[in-house]
Design brief:
Number of helices: 13
Strand content: 5-15%
Radius of gyration: 20 Å
CATH topology of the largest domain: Rossmann fold
Shape: globular
Number of domains: 2
CATH class of the largest domain: Alpha Beta
CATH architecture of the largest domain: 3-Layer(aba) Sandwich
Strand order of the largest sheet: 2-1-3-4
Distance between the termini: 23 Å
Order of helices and strands: EHHHHEHEHEHEHHEHEHEHH
Number of strands: 8
Structural class: alpha/beta
Largest sheet: 4 strands, parallel
């Protein structure tokens, strides 16, 4: 029996200040997220962030909460069901959140009880970052190592250029583009501190030292989050037949005063309006499920910012969620992560058509 562990970031249990505080404490205590000395991280968290941010974030969560609860959670659950149907009876699928519930450890327990001797670990982050993919894999490996009978794990690599992922997002966005006829398309990715990128540059010879350092993927920058974001954007623009002067890349969700990768989404959006772009369509290709960063940060705040700056219409492309092309792509990547001999034993009646 094969197991598939789908990992996403996580969500508070409810949109209240106490629940958000618990979530943020776990999230921002992660040394891969705030990568400063432990004492400084604790001071920042307890003296600066937690006294005021939970109430602000809880209000933002309330603006997107639904009858089913957190969009990130129920979209992840729906995706798991859709992928399970595609993989067939020789697979079990579970979801685990790096922060909050259900945990990665509880998801591994579910797969273990189902008799899964080999588990494919699938961090649902298209572009690699130590603060997302890296920490998810660290916790999954650690949880698996605690078993007396340690399961065999294999992981799905970053899929920023996977054809199924690109096709699923382009199919998601094409109807929005056709309807809105935008003057500009913006690909907004989650931001990172510049120091995170520099840590991934083992040779210390390229990252942010040249104006063209992210224009292509090479052996030198193969782990670079920013370069992978630009690669995703280029492939999506090509798939959507966008002229080069009609699309651009930006980075959202920065936190704190240290340098973060540029350009910033909240600066690009008003500038687009001031340059005469009346209609803008925004993709958020770093997120495969709609969440706070897509629905509230772009779908509410960015829309208001664009209009205040003189624009007419800013439309968010919905994320992949559990759409059939995305479920096909996830199932395909999960199968391909298995060694060749195990792939041969898969259930052929549920093969993906992606």
């Amino acid at each position: 029996m094969h197991g598939l562990l789908l990992i996403n970031l996580g969500t508070p249990d409810e949109p209240t200040s106490p629940a958000v505080r618990r979530y943020l404490r776990q999230f921002l205590s992660d040394p891969r997220v705030i990568d400063i000395p432990a004492a400084a991280r604790a001071a920042l968290l307890n003296l600066v962030i937690l006294p005021r941010r939970p109430a602000q974030s809880a209000a933002a969560y309330r603006s997107i909460w639904t009858e089913r609860g957190s969009p990130l959670l129920f979209h992840s659950e729906d995706l798991a069901e859709a992928v399970r149907a595609r993989l067939g009876s020789t697979w079990r699928v579970a979801i685990g959140m790096r922060y909050g519930s259900p945990s990665i450890a509880s998801a591994l327990d579910t797969l273990s009880r189902a008799g899964c001797e080999r588990v494919v670990v699938f961090p649902l982050y298209p572009q690699y970052a130590s603060s997302s993919t890296g920490t998810a894999l660290e916790v999954a490996y650690s949880a698996a190592a605690s078993y007396w009978n340690v399961p065999s794990l294999t992981s799905v690599p970053p899929f920023y250029d996977h054809p199924g992922y690109i096709r699923a997002f382009s199919e998601r966005g094409r109807p929005v583009i056709d309807e809105r006829e935008p003057d500009h398309v913006l690909f907004s990715f989650h931001g990172l501190p510049e120091r995170h990128l520099k840590k991934s540059d083992a040779a210390k010879t390229r990252c942010l030292l040249r104006h063209d350092c992210c224009e292509s993927i090479t052996d030198e920058n193969a782990w670079c989050y920013r370069a992978q974001c630009f690669a995703t954007a280029r492939l999506l623009a090509q798939e959507l037949s966008l002229p080069n002067d009609k699309w651009s890349v930006s980075f959202q969700s920065r936190l704190g005063r240290t340098p973060w990768i540029r350009p910033f989404t909240d600066e690009v959006i008003p500038e687009l309006a001031k340059r005469g772009n009346r209609r803008v369509v925004v993709f958020s290709p770093a997120f495969v499920a709609d969440c706070l960063e897509t629905l509230e940060e772009i779908g509410i705040r960015a829309v208001e910012l664009f209009r205040e700056s003189g624009g007419d219409d800013l439309a968010l492309v919905p994320s992949l969620n559990s759409t059939p092309p995305w479920a096909d792509a996830v199932a395909d990547m999960a199968r391909r992560a298995l060694p060749a001999g195990d792939q041969a034993g898969d259930d052929p009646s549920h093969r993906s058509t992606a």
